Here is the input.
Amino acid sequence: MSRRALIASLLVLAAAGAAHAQTPAQMHEQAIVLDTHFDTPANFSASGWSIMDRHDFAVDGTQVDYPRMVEGGVDGGVFVVFTPQRGRDAVADMWSRDHALTRTAEILQMTARHHEHFALVTTPAQAREALAAGKKFVFISLENGAPLVGDLSLMETFYKLGVRMMGPVHFANNDLADSSTDPKGPEFGGLSDKGRAFVRHANDLGIVIDPSHASDQALDQMLDLSRAPLILSHSGVKAVYDHPRNIPDDLLRKLADKGGVIQINAFSGYMVETPRIPERNAALAALTQKYGPQRDVKPEQRDAYLAERAAIEAQYPLPRANMDDLMKHILHVVQTVGIDHVGISGDFDGGGGIEGFEDVTAFPALTERLVAAGFTQADLDKFWGGNVLRVMEQVQAAATR
Here is the structure.
């Protein structure tokens, strides 16, 4: 073959390859896309709010609904039963239990009411079946073990209701474990005896343990005790930004050695330095006192509320993380422990959201960033959902009952 003919053949092959190359949008569509921490159930009881309506973050502050999931190519996620810490006595225990049962019921009601569009699932196989049926899948997670501390047998009750992920602790220490952010510091040096029992019960039932808010010592002990991999459903890495909520590289490696996954959290305060401005906090508190929480502001007062909030934001601006910061965390995990141990959570409807990544419609933009960074379709399949579904399968396979 002449040199000219060889060049022509190569050009034809290159053109054919380019014609068959997938765009980032097509690659995004091919992956199973899930987020492991949607705080969206907090909106279910808000007057007039429906997950089937398309909302606007700038108007009501919400970040997840069915139309925006469709637009963002989001196939499903882990919907969270969040329980704030309200003390540690018998009365608080009962309040926490009842609050969590009510929130769980609201998730069950949502999936039943909109069963044409959503499917409650408890296994990866069911999630794939839901996708094949054209539905968004809904896993349930319990964030904060406060509803369980009065009686750990309640773990089985929540399991029967569909919960398949549980985090033992939140912003403050509780009777199960030390928190990474309690201003009083550690109380148990990691897990309490009851917290160790929590780990054993979770393993027995096939519930994924989520130590996202736990102290480093508590995470270390959970990794030692658990028979199955763990998922940090919304966290970051200290090597990129040193915050108590982020984990150091030695624990990142230990998490990966266990087969676990860290879902990088798009929460600005855990990604860039955020100064505390008392005047700003006081002004926002007064605004909430005047109008109520943003999602509950009456329609006739919404314009006034937004104008006053914008004035506060302009007077006391805060630095915000952006997509570059998000990519730094993702790439650090990949470089340190590999693509098999990383995913994403916007922590949407729970305080998450950064510049360029404000709600679930921004997920394809992150895929574009990942593709530009050299990620392949196989990488995206793992990142967007494959890693989490693999861990869920391993956890359930290790269950004893």
